[in-house]
Amino acid sequence: MPKKEVNKKPKTDKKNSQAYGAEQITVLEGLDPVRKRPGMYIGNTAGEGLHHLIWEVVNNSIDEAMAGYCTEVVVKILPDNEVEVIDNGRGIPVEIHKATKVSALETVMTKLHAGGKFGQGGYKVSGGLHGVGVSVVNALSTLTIAKVKRDGNVYEQEYKIGKPQKKVKVIGKVTIPKKLDPFFPEELYKMGTSIKFKPDSTIFTETVFDWDKILNYLRQQAYLTKGVKLLAFDLRDKDKPKDFAFFFEGGISSYAKHLNHQDKPIHENIFYVDKTLDEVNVEIAFRYIDEYHETVVAFTNNITNPEGGSHVAGFRTALTRTLNSYARKHNILKEKDENLSGDDVREGLTAVISVKVKDPQFEGQTKAKLGNAEVKPAVDQVLSESLDIFLEEHPKDAEAFIGKSLLAAQARKASRAARETVLRKGVLESLSLPGKLADCSSKNPDECELYIVEGDSAGGSAKQGRSRNFQAILPLRGKIINIEKARIDKMLANNEVKSLIIALGTNFGEQMEIGKLRYGKVIIMTDADVDGAHIRTLLLTLFFRHFYPLIQNGNLYIAQPPLFQVKKGKNIEYVYSEEELEITLEKFKKLKDEPKAKKEQEETEQADEEIKEADIEQVEIQDQALKGVSIQRYKGLGEMNPTQLWDTTMNPETRVLKQVTVADVDKADEVFDILMGAEVAPRKRFIQTHAKSVKNLDV
Asked: Which cofactor is essential here (predicted)?
């Protein structure tokens, strides 16, 4: 038995002990942690994080509004990449703070976890949970100027990279102008706060603010804070300033209508409740539309929760139970009938859930998911009681709810059988995947790629040109079903969709398991023409509706085949856009003509003959400076031989892939609904609106 060594001191390496001592321990003070690890506070340092700075400051103003002290919020995008957020609330206090011995304004602007949100009666509910919002904005900005209108005075303090440049001082009295400039509505405010900041370009990889993204966020906040006016101004172009105002008395009822304003509702009255239970304010609005997908957006203290949480769980439980109870009570569901499932009652549902909580518990500073256990029973009880009354008072609407759910139940049973057939086939044939799939030899998903290719011709070229080790090819015959207009049972009856599901190996919808994905990259590769664009859109609709984790996880890509081949002698270049073609031709003008050897001349003539036989489009060149240059226009992947397809579109060292991402889920949902849904009128309006901005339309 080995001997035990008790209290034996470890040997000290003198050299190492000198290299690592107390002086090597770094203590980050003040706002230094924010600059060291900005992603912990704002998500990332790209576009999402950049705009998060605005959200943090706006949220403080919204907190004032929710507390009943603010009626207007102004957001200005200024020249030189600056932003100013102004409200007519009470104004941040400016007197000396007892604990910090400096102004309360400076404390809020320079100290993490400082604000009116940690008890002491500052706010009952707040979106800025951690009290770090405005101080984080200050830390990540090269210049911040805070102005406060309070007690008849205007106070100001300036900061650089979070550090105050001077003490808070009075810069004048509050005055109201006789004539108001429409771009400066804040001049009418007798009280309030203004935060002006310039994001630090050494921190952010993207520094240009997106006007549409800002408008979408402010619109959302206006819906969630009924009776509060939000104004936006884009003053970056002095000659063409933009302005927008949002004000909604209907609150989230208006929001629920907005989310599916392109669609046809199946009932007359929108359901709405606003009630407080056990110090949790619950506000819910929903309606059903004549579609198959579900749209549920959830908020806590006006902060969006894209991953849901306890409020969404409470909503779903109450909705399913209450509709089943009503259907049983009115003998719509017989004793022998099984209950409607959660999926059944949520088909075609558009719902907005907004809760106000004193002490919200989120996952991380970006607040993606609500965790408060007490919120679920509060939402459950409020919705159950209110919906029960609504159904009794509106029997026609109740009939529409239940009728829609019963149809969904019938489709679910049919799709369950179809799903089991597909998945059972996938398991039984795991060693022999769909016959049309040319799989790769590697079994490591991280290095494997699946090319979804349009047509057998392109599929043949891709199979011959690929690297068999890590690239798999799945050719699609014709156009897949438009799943926006079809239920799951119809979708699963489509052979192309069935083959794709089996090839991916993940299942789909709510049962999708991203960990079982057989390919790290799933690449859509279609022709550069109208049919190719349509097939690509059909596939994107399928992935967005039924394989969304694939997009979230960054696994979905679109291949970019070249539009042209430009050739002069031995010089060959592949070009991917009309703009790039002009640049390439200018470069080819400078190439000198070289005498061709007899063999090379014969090869060129043979290649030209092959192009003619293949009916490949040759672009006619009028410019004499481009004598000897040939331009080949590719309309289909099948026009390329395997070597060309590998060199231009499949070789990881030379290809161009576009990763599919979704910046705004609600907006993406709306666009898919317009482009691929059953309603023709919205699609017509969309085409008429955007027709002039389409480039290189291939008719």
From this structure: Mg(2+); Mn(2+); Ca(2+)
